[in-house]
Amino acid sequence: MDLLKKLEDCASRYEQVQQDILDPNLVKDQKRYKDTMREHGYLSELMVLYDEYKKCLQGIKDDTLMITNEEDADMREMAREELKELEAKQPQLEEQIKVKLIPPDPLDEKNIILEIRSAAGGDEASLFVRDLWEMYCHLADRKGWKTETMEAQETEVGGFNKIVTSVSGKFVYGTLRWESGVHRVQRVPQTEAQGRLQTSTATVAVLPEAEETEIDIKPEDVRVDVMRAGGPGGQCVNTTDSAVRLTHIPTGIVVIQQDEKSQIKNKAKAFRVLRARLFDLEESKKQAERADARKSMVGSGARSEKIRTYNFPQDRVTDHRINLSLHNLPGFMMGNMDEMLDALNVYAKEEQLKADVSTLN
User: Fold this and answer.
1) Distance CA 9, CA 96 (A)
2) φ, ψ for residue 352 (rounded to 5)?
3) 286 dihedral zone (left: phi>0; alpha: psi -120 to 50; beta)
4) What SS3 class is residue 307?
């Protein structure tokens, strides 16, 4: 299918979507309304490029005819200059259009549940978890996102064995979706008297947060247990049964929530996390069913996949999936991550474009 035919199909679809927007009953179905408005926004931007592309092609045609048929030498020279510019512009527009033809993923607009857990490295790994969590919180502040701690398992050295945070705002999942995986830190721990370099790891999971209408959790599929909350060293122990543990029987997923003093609030938070994990499970299944050619080389986002190294002695952060190294590690840890995040998203789109390009030629 050539590019123009694809654009003509999109133009026809754009006209249909415009008609759908005029339907007074559209707002009554919120999911259909959101999907329609999202598609309209995407197609509107594509139509701007389509119009520019058509003008470019028509200009090339007109200038070619003028060079052939025009008797005035000055007019022919003017046409040659314009033709040169338009012929240089055409491939640039085609590349822009091909990238734009990849529709945005509806999941990109979702809020997330961010889970960070310590892996190899003991106390140093738990401190690295805190560093990563603070890094994402700094990024959220810069982006104007809202964060809320859902669960925190603090260690005696001031780190976290695990911390779960909800992040809400504009385009959160689309920005952070490639952060899932194993993060590795190389530095000399403060507790290391010999000054030896240590390597520790932490796992990050970025789960798109599901609406209640998107994931139907049957009451009979969930076992709810209540217990007393506890903390490290016997601290933070409640005298009431406020902690909640949810066990999703069909999948075996377990969620424990104990940060709130209210059992009702802990239960509500636990169900938010459970919905996100079930939604992530469903999305993972869908992705696994896609053809290998559709999978991005950015990575699967699997928890076991090593994606990035933070090397403090060398003041370097390296993403192994795109072989990109950046310096000024302290700035990166303060949430100045845009260059890395943008590069990951561009690379993912380019890989998807390679998989789709055969349909455009």
Assistant:
1) 17
2) -65, -35
3) alpha
4) strand
